[in-house]
User: Fold these one by one.
Assistant:
Number 1:
Amino acid sequence: MTDLTLYHNPRCSKSRGALELLENRGLQPTVIRYLETPPNADELRTLLGKLGISARELLRKGEDEYRELELADTSLSEAQLIEAMVSHPRLIERPILVAGDRAVVGRPPEKVLELLA
């Protein structure tokens, strides 16, 4: 099995659920508490490539920072959205499981199992 990395927020029930699903299968992913150790712009671009989504699709639209930074503005570039997530990691949807060159957002948590098939 490819090494697994989980971008995790222990305060998030979905993130805890994804970690529990993995651990119940005997898997011990490398856990990155991304609020404490946020990805830089290059890491985030790589992660988006593995997810196969745009920066806008990875944004948590319910966060205060989303409104305060006016990130709903469709004229903002991919680079601007990435920089917003680097500066405000709470904006990054979670959890994210990475396995090799693939990744998935674990919402619902069972989605992480897609990478294990």
Number 2:
Amino acid sequence: MTELLTLCEARTALSPIETIFLTGLPEPAHELVEEPRCELHDDHPGVHMALAQESATDSWWLVWAPGNAQLTARGQKIDRRLHKMDNCPAVQEGGDEDECLLAEKHPGAHSFEMETSGAREPSAFSRKKMLAALREDLDDKARADLEEMESLLSSASGDPLPLITENEALVIAMLLGQAAHNDWLVEDLAIQLAERMESRLEALAR
């Protein structure tokens, strides 16, 4: 098995102007990383590169020069730039046939030859699309159960019942918070219920 290359350690902070531009892109795929890390391998040639945002069908890469070097764009010398770039067409030969996740004409090795920096946090837009897809995949009973829970939480009716202790309510609220991070399908419901229970616990403590 071929040993994977280590990732470059170079990082850079997004400027206010870059943040405003990236935040304004339609259909963002992931949350912005305030200090993106270069996604090329350690000791790579050329510029540093990090995927800043994927918007609809476009990929925007932040490209910056190492050290005190400068880039040249349209005849002007610059330190960095956001650039819309196509995906690298390279595919790993053999078993998994992984695609390269870097930009076209990137310097150095392909992404499948390197360690991974991990997945990005999906944006609210992307999560909404994935939730819709998960919901479509539910069987009839599971969908009916989900719709019943949504209906129950949307209603203000129902008398409080003294069935659990304060400590038990706290544990349930904590468990719901954990479930919200592990199951996107019931995340909103778990958060709603946890917030209601926590507010009642706070009221009891006053």
